[in-house]
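User: My collaborator sent over this chain with a note saying "see what the structure looks like." That's all I know about it. Can you take a look?
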Amino acid sequence: MEEGKPSIVYRCLACKSIFTPEMMNPREIRCPYCGYKVLEKVRKETVKMVKAI
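Assistant: Without extra context I'll predict from the sequence alone. Here is the result:
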């Protein structure tokens, strides 16, 4: 992956596999392990602090 660019990570809802977009076929959005079409983006563990107004 490129330096400085945030990495996107997906999780398959059927088999719970975790993978990056580079592992998927660029023509179709499917799980590379089971072929299921429903994916979710995995959120990062960091917490963003925002100053209250």
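A starting point for your reply to your collaborator: The mean pLDDT is 88.
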